[in-house]
Amino acid sequence: MKSLSLLWLLKQAYFGTYPKTSIELHRKYGPVVRIAPNEYSIDDPTAAKIIYGSGRGFTKSPWYYASGNPISPLPNIFVEPNPHIHAQARRKVAAAYSMTNLVQLEPFIDKCSAVLRDRLEEFARSGTSLEISHWMQCYAFDVIGMMTVGKQFGFLDRGEDVQGIMSSLSQYLVYCANVGVFPEWHKTLFRQQMRSKTASGLTHVREFANSQLEDKREKAKTDGFSDPDVAEDFVTKFLRLQAQNPEKITNADISSMCITNIGAGSDTTSISLTSIIFNLIKYPRVLARLRAEIKEHESQGTVSDPMTFAEANKLPYLQAVIKEGLRMHPATGLSLGRVVPSDGATLVGQYFPAGTVVGINAWVAHANTKVFGHDAHVFRPERWLDYPELVKEREAYFMTFGQGSRTCLGKNISLMELSKAVPQIVRHFDFAPDTESGEPEYVTENVWFVKIRDFHCKVYSRHTQ
Questions:
Q1: Does 258 show up as a binding residue in the annotation?
Q2: Domains in the chain: how many in total?
Q3: Which pairs count as long-range contacts for 45-50, CB under 8 Å and 24+ apart, including other chains?
Q4: Which of 60, 143, 184, 247 has the most CB atoms at less than 10 Å from its CB?
């Protein structure tokens, strides 16, 4: 069935079963599994270097087309298949996403972390259960709001889906995952949604992002581009660069950046942060070791509260916990498809002709026992502190943010948020699963991003126990 029809792939996307099903298929059939008439799922570290390596000629598959707006002239770094156009567009914005620039925005994260701490303290005092994934997404949305336009969107203050953006994003991701199987339908279906009474998820997200951008433009007209006492957010930076060189930075560039940040800037962080909290509850040994490392550095006076990114980056076990959380639950659940170039390609000893779609699913890669060990299903941060040769091999097959020239542009944002949020949370709070079994439980919803739902806990302040 998989080799004869796209319907199997559509079924997996529709029901959200693709990650686990893919792992099972590779365990049964080996490193090459045919998932559609012209598409193969691959599980091999050497193949990953070929498929995603810079200059190899593999381009993004047509599946990605459904993630963009087919009637908009705005560039889309995520969707663009042409490597030269993509590289040109990426160069315009890459410096803003460098860690050197992002560390200047730490005060924005600290401000949101303080609000998150206040909310968690309120839950602790009231004894009310909270749904962890919702609040982690509220946190991630407010952080990306601060970084992008210099203000929180109010998710943490209100504890609710502000202007329906969360639900719109979920609606958009469902559309991408399903219509991507039949990308030739995208333009027609998108136009139909535009004509319906309810705008598509993507349209609503674009409208929200553009309204935030226009507010920022108006503020810049009256207040100027910068305040020496406030870090320069993304939009302010690009408006200033545009004023200096209008031909290099266009309105379309700024709008595209703003939409991308707001549309894609919260899911990876919120999913990963939720997964890390889940596993720290499930594996108390790991939590105890992490707290011991933090306490040791506190006693030495080498970390502050809140911890800076530079300080957090020097805590090896903390970084291993974060890396293991990203490995155990990659944010994306579908294969990162690429089109084989004109000369064809040999992968895992098998020849694939030009035009064939091949790709690796991060869930499959991270379950590979040859790379990550026989206990790949276990949350064990120590695997990232192992022999250097083994760690290097694992790093090479770490797929959470993709690989090569198409590595996620927001990777550094997510890593900085996680490096600051995880120690802040474990320092000040304990969590107890609010379940009949007393064990942490959740369900997943795979709509391109593998979202965590129904993870209910009670929270306790460590300063009042």
A1: no
A2: 1
A3: 45/365, 45/368, 45/371, 45/393, 45/396, 45/397, 46/348, 47/347, 47/348, 47/358, 47/360, 48/360, 48/365, 48/396, 48/397, 48/399, 48/403, 49/396, 50/345, 50/347
A4: 143
